[in-house]
Amino acid sequence: MIKNLLYVLNLKRKETYKAILWELVHAIFLAAPIGFLLLILQDLFLPAPHPAKLWTYVGLMIGLLVLQLFVAVRSVIASNGMTYAVSTDLRIRLGNQLQRLSMGTFKQRDPGDLAAVLLQDVANFELIFGHTVGNITAALFSMLVLSGFLFITDWRLAIVLLAALPLVWLMVRLAAHLLTKQGKKHVAARNATSARFLEYVSGIRTIKSFGMTGKRFSSLEKALNDFRRASIRTEAIPGPFVLLATVVLEVCFLLMLWLGIHFFAQGTLAIPVLIAFLLMGYRLYDPIKIMLVDFALLRYMNISLGRVLELLQTPRQGAGKNLQPSHYDICFHDVSFGYHPERKVLDKVSFQIPEHRMTALVGPSGSGKTTITSLIARFWDVDEGRIEIGGIAIQDMKPTTVYSLISEVFQEVYLFDDTIYNNIKYGKPEATEAEIIAAAERACVLDFAWEMPGGLHSAVGENGNKLSGGQKQRISIARALLKDAPIVLLDEATASLDPENEIYIQQAIQELVKDKTVIVIAHKLATVRKADQLLVLQEGQIVERGSHGELMALGGLYRRLYDIQQQAGGWKLGKKALPEP
Ligand code: ADP
Ligand code: MG
């Protein structure tokens, strides 16, 4: 926790030092009247007290009190200033960080979880930090100053009072340990709630159409219940420990009293000193009691802060140089990659994808075909080896350059809640109307758009929910056509389509791949027979490569897969013969 706190405090050093300085001055002012109290007591017990002297002390104490008010206000302002500076800085850093993270990071994380970090965790941190850090610093300093006073006055009694501290510290550690464990469950339960909620809301249509309302809702309800239980447990943990710590403090105080009376009877302690200890002992313990409560809050804050820092420290994609390839062949040199460190999906894979040719990736489901296309588009960075486009490593290019070189058509199409026209336009924001209409025509979008009331300017609905899968697919092809990038990635674009749509889409794709470097992944091996090169993947390795004819002659995995599909008549009937090649 200390490490995390130091990290954020270091973000804004000037404000932090200022706040700490004011808290220190504040603590001194809080403790100073007690020094006068000691002097007054000592004077009162003199055989002949000087009233004038006493009144001077009282006057000075009143003066200090007024000054103390001023200092208190300044220290609150300073610590608010620090909180504001630090949390603003954190938010700006998070914003910058989000822009620089690889797409993979976003794909990998639960969107509900990411939103929770950005919204709830930062707010959580801000709230608790602002409330507690000032308090705790002030408490620490005033304890320090006060124990200094006590030590000078009578070190024996001071030691007895201070002996409570290590014990209380031990209990705080124990409570903190339990609280961190429970707090993690609490945060996890909270995030599960937001994720279930997002899922419930975004899937409402599917949920309704399949009549799953009750079932889906019950998973949201369960998440909410878990969250409630976790919240109650989190609240309950510190209670007993705070109580126990208070008992320890009381016991030490009584011990000090007992010893004080004992020393007095021995004649080694004066009455005013004993009275001073009785008055100040309680003052010494006050900040500890505040800290006990705040410390629990701080631990909780630390969990949120940890998650914020984790996101901030996720490696960014390098900025890259301003390199622009002049040709567009793609080359994998000993590329290894895994989504998780324990499991490699690709293991030292090398291959060449020639320019202006079609290369097909085939292989069983899970063999890493989609992964290869994601790596080319730099959604993820490779673990080992390098990927080059036109002889330049993609890590050396700006991520935006890489994106500009590639058009993608995936089975799952993402459309913005906008018109067909604007959805196509996203492919090339500066395109003219004529260019957009031409792209719509070539991708067979006009064939269905002209039947709609608004034509190309009809709205597609949220994520295209007013259109069929095939229609959405054609819009995404039009978008890619308009972008006219030199490299085209097609991932299972024609899977699960009706025969009519499939014809249209085949036609649109023929338009799209003209003169391009094309990488295609297809369910039906018959559709990629014409590819110039086939790469056969199995368990993260390229096991066969060559043209359809060569691979059939080889009689290996490709031939087996092809024969199975032929026998099942899969490609003739337009059905999937394999679970998911
Ligand atoms: P294919 O496209 O050939 O079916 P993929 O490239 O999608 O195969 O997946 C290869 C392996 O990587 C599979 O074992 C899959 O479970 C795993 N995988 C794919 N995407 C992710 C991801 N985002 N996170 C973790 N593992 C993944
Ligand atoms: Mg795939």
UniProtKB/TrEMBL annotation:
The chain crosses the membrane at residues 20-42, 54-73, 133-152, 158-176, 241-261, 267-285. Residues 19-288 form the ABC transmembrane type-1 domain. Keywords: ATP-binding, Membrane, Nucleotide-binding, Transmembrane, Transmembrane helix. It holds the Pfam family ABC_tran. It is found in: Cell membrane. This is ABC transporter ATP-binding protein. The keyword Ubl conjugation does not apply. Residues 330-564 form the ABC transporter domain. It is a multi-pass membrane protein. It comes from the Bacteria. Coiled coil: none annotated. GO terms for molecular function: ATP binding.
